[in-house]
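The freezer alarm interrupted the setup, so I double-checked each line after restarting. Inputs confirmed:
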Amino acid sequence: MVGEEFAIRLAQAKAGDEAAFSVLWRDANPALVRYLRVMTPEHAEDVAAETWINVLRGLAQFTGDETAWRAWLFTTARRRALDQVRHRTRHPSEPLDDIHAAELPRTADAEQLALDNIATERAIALVSRLPDHQAEVVMLRVVAGLETDVVAQLVGSTPGAVRVTAHRGLKKLATLLSGAGVTL
Amino acid sequence: MGDGFSRGLPGAGSQGDPSLDSVLTEEVAERMLDGWPRHAALAPDLRPLRETVDALRAAPSGAELRAESVVLAAFRDFAGSALDDTIVDGPALDRVAGHQALPREAGRFDPLAHTLRLELPRDPAGHRSRRARHRARPDGHAAGRPGPMTRRPRAVGTVAALTLLVIIGVFAYAGSLPGPIQNAAHVAFGAPPVKATLASPPSVEVTGSARATASPMAGAQEVRPSATSASRPTGNGGPDGPGQWCQAYLSNPWKPGSTSWAKAAFAKLSKAAPGGARWVLWYCSRYVDLRHDSSEMPFFFPASFPGGSWAWSPEHGWDTPAGYPGNVSDPGSAPEPGTVPSAVSGPGPARVSARRLSARPVAGVVAGWRRDEDIAAAAWLQVDRDRPLVAAAVVNALRG
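Predicted 3D structure, all chains:
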């Protein structure tokens, strides 16, 4: 989350400030990509790109706080992902041992980042093994950082149902973790 | 809740696990989803779960930030250009928590200003949202839903404006407009320029502000670089030489096939340039200054350009494309390092504003340019350093 600077960054971005938009993008895109990797694994990057194009088109009209910003972003992404989901075939999740580490940023703390990266990859793979609705709710709550009521509105459900779904999703994750004997 | 996802009924999930249920209550689950504080006590059995949830929030990887340059280029496109009059319905934004849709703000960031089409998947058939749709799609198909023309007052104004433009265009193509206006029409939409006479050299206006004057007789003596190079056309010392051909062609390089396009000049250049039409731009780089408005800034053709990347810089002059079939070993075939190729004397070489070129909608290119002339024109679009994304899309579209 951008935090207190969000309003300023948003205003600057709407005024054409590329650096400000970069801040917004860098903050949101990793979460967006992770969400989409669970929702539409084969088309995550394409859907993410299309999402940002839609965001750019509507940026001038957008008003709201950071929660609204993220809600809008993930609503857009979800719609795009739904189009892909309707045509996809179910892909079994990868065994944890076969996860490929993503590219590593060039920083001095590469070792720690590598470990974090592997952990993230495994976490995404685990969430992908959940039922779709549970996986989506967990990702929207965790990576998108959206509150229950916002998630409910986004997925077309009720806050109570979202809480139940999220709870069951975490229980399923815990079961998968205990069954796999995985430590992160 | 059935919204297209194939699974995920609320009732699905793990069976009851008494030990797990006792520690992972709904309240604990909510706190974990919100971010369990590190210092807070947590049942040991839940630590792997917390670690997994925390890993979902880990710092971004390089792969997740890889597309930044592409997105920022798209951002620049949306924010920087205001020359296209594509009509776009204001996006109908979803009403999510805290968000309201407001009238379009005035300012630099204008989503109406530019149409940018990238290599993105089309919306699947049947998917309709309330988001904005451009009235004219690159493939020429009309939008599937009523557009601005259904709004009568705007339609009347639009028709009137178009009628006026048509009338002006007719006179412009007939060369009947006064000199300055005729030249403006030449620049704007490729109408024939004001005819030159020996007494009054033609004004080859290729930019809105920078005006270069070409004297045919004087230019005949200056057109270079080398009359001895095998790659040079014969008779370049005359008024109808490569310099003039290049200027005529480059005044409208993005509209091949239009009646105002200097096709005759391009045909001559295609014969003169080693390797044919694809290399016209490179060939003209010796006769016309192709630099951006920022005249001392180097620019380059990206690697996606046919023949590989090549560049110009103040220090080294022109590189040579790897695929260029001309006689590059001839010292006369390339400008001296550090020099700027000059086609005319006097005020200096004509400058073709790449910024003006970049204002042209990409839609026409994506619609299906396939000829060498189109590729040469598309290569010119790459000269605009501010539009790398557009250029890449253009090249990708043309390379099919």
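Quick read of the result. Chain A touches chain B through 98 residues (CB under 8 Å).
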